[in-house]
Give the backbone structure.
Amino acid sequence: IDVLSCGCVDTPTNPARALVTSAALAAGSSANLDSADLPSKYLWQATFTASVPFKVVLSLNDNGSLTSLDTLFGRAGDSVQWKPPHRAFAQAPATGAGVQGWRAAMTNLDTSEPADVYATFMYADN
């Protein structure tokens, strides 16, 4: 056992990222920013940003059946990062029909301005 790293996996295998965006999201409106079909991948971190205040509900997506992971709020121009409390906490469901991955349901909280909203999913095989 590797005592310094607790014997656990501390480096992602085959790390990758996916940027998803929605352009000109109207004031007060919401958009679903979905990852690609990434069955059994582990979400290591997600980052969300917009030029307006926003709300994001992060969920596991099992072919449209959602399991909420967290709700976050961000200020205009600031990024909000989310990391799972445990490596396997936000693992995408195994292969099935449709998309297996993550969804960021982002809401533009501004009362008058449209804005582009962005989600970046950082994931790996372990």
Remarks:
- The beta strands are 16-25, 30-34, 42-50, 54-62, 65-74, 80-82, 100-108, 115-124.
- The CA atoms of residues 24 and 115 lie 5 Å apart.
